[in-house]
Amino acid sequence: MSGAPAQFTLLTAARLLDGSGNPPLESAALLIEGGRIAGFGRQGDMRSPDGAQVERVDYGDATILPGLVDAHTHLISPGDGTPGDDTAREADEILLLRAARNVRTILHSGVTTVRDNGAKNHVAFSLREGLQRGLAVGPRVVVCGRPITMTGGHMWYFGSEADGEDETRAEVRKLLKEGADYIKIVASGGSTRSSDSRRASYTVAELQAITDESHRRGKLTAAHCACAQSVKNCLDAGVDMIVHCVFTEADGSYRSRQELVDRLAKAGAWVNPTLYILRATIKHLTKTRERQGKLQSHQERLLGRTKRDLEVRLEAVGRMIRAGVRIVAGSDSPWNAYAPGGFSYEIETMAQAGLSNGDAIVSGTAAAAESIGVGDVAGRLAPGREADVLVVTGDPTRDLAALHQVLDIYQGGRRVAREESQVPITESTE
């Protein structure tokens, strides 16, 4: 990052989005004092105190908005298609170095807050501490440490296997002792080779033990749910966020579960559908076929299944949106073949599922921040808040692809130094 900012920094652009879903403010200006937002408004109305030193940065036909908030990451993963089972075999020291590289890439893409949804052993805690101590550069990180899973369940290799009500409750206490910001639950199988994604892993009683212990300590819960029974179990247990929220049956079939959609809406549960990771897998396999001339038979089956899954999931999330379910953007990157730094693709896919462009942006700013427990500090532009700011070319409310065109990022009022940064018109005045 650059050195200490001027006492005041005045950013001007064609428009500003505050992250809450309000219409764009045209001919906008944002005033930063030190590391916090002093205010924003129309360019002719924003002024600093007489005689104050002001750095003025004009971005022209661009949009000022809050730094993005990714509600779902796995920061130790390479994002190149390597299975989680294989990633977990690597030494913790290597995983920490990779995570430090990933958070830098993620910050440079315009994401200033992330939630890590599960890492091996103590790696996520070490990463968070390193960022706080300035040993690495990256976004604000909310961590669960290790996800709680049944013996042999999805992500068992991260180190928090627990069975039964007493063990799961004890595991929550252990994680909170280590400094977990929230508790991640693996409520069904997943991609882990020893698990079955079509079946629920925990009983309602086990899930209730986890949520009770977490809520008693003021912590949110989020649950990996890759089948319909796991979604139902988590609703019965009062889990705060349903991740993936796939309605697959035990026999592998998929059917509409409107009763679960209605329950999600009534409960006010957050749903993080993780849609773009499917498209990332499709792109990865397609490129592999182009490069090698053909895919292996199991890869061809995976490609066909993923294409079908994407169609089904887009339709299902559209139904949730229409029913009023609270949907947030979380990438699941860099898990599987979803490389770090592509969170804006997740926001685009949310719009393809049925959100308006404006609501899709909210799903990756204010709504995402609220869903992961940092709504008071991230995801919105407001006076007094830390100045975590993203500036992009064009108008993302008209074309979400503008989110890929990052001009600048400010973290706590400091402009983030990036090799690929474009240099706007800048001047200092007294």
Structure description:
The protein contains twelve helices and 17 strands. The strands form three sheets. Strands 1, 2, 3, 4, 5, 14, 15, 16 and 17 form a nine-stranded mixed β-sheet that branches. A five-stranded parallel β-sheet has the order 9-10-11-12-13. It has a three-stranded parallel β-sheet with strand order 6-7-8. A hairpin with a 2-residue loop joins strand 2 and strand 3. Helix 5 packs across helix 6 and helix 6 packs parallel to helix 7. The longest helix has 27 residues. The two termini are 24 Å apart. The N terminus and C terminus are likely disordered.
Termini distance?
24 Å
In oligomeric terms, what are we looking at?
Answer: single chain
Overall spatial form:
globular
Note the run of SSEs as H and E: EEEEEEHHEHEHEHEHEHEHHEHHHEEEE
Number of helices: 12
Structural class: alpha/beta
Helix content: 25-40%
Largest sheet: 9 strands, mixed
Tell me how many strands there are. 17
Supply Rg: 22 Å
Low-confidence sequence ranges: 1-5, 421-430
Output mean pLDDT: 95
Proportion of β residues?
15-25%
List the helices and strands and how they pair.
Blueprint: E1 8-16, E2 25-33, E3 36-42, E4 54-58, E5 62-66, E6 68-73, H1 84-87, H2 92-108, E7 111-116, H3 123-132, E8 140-143, H4 164-178, E9 183-186, H5 204-216, E10 221-225, H6 228-237, E11 241-244, H7 258-267, E12 270-272, H8 276-292, H9 297-323, E13 326-327, H10 343-353, H11 357-363, H12 366-371, E14 389-393, E15 406-411, E16 414-415, E17 425-429
Parallel strand pairs: 1-4, 1-5, 6-7, 7-8, 9-10, 10-11, 11-12, 12-13
Antiparallel strand pairs: 1-2, 2-3, 4-17, 5-14, 14-15, 15-16
Helix pairs in contact: 2-3, 4-5, 5-6, 6-7, 8-9, 9-10, 10-11
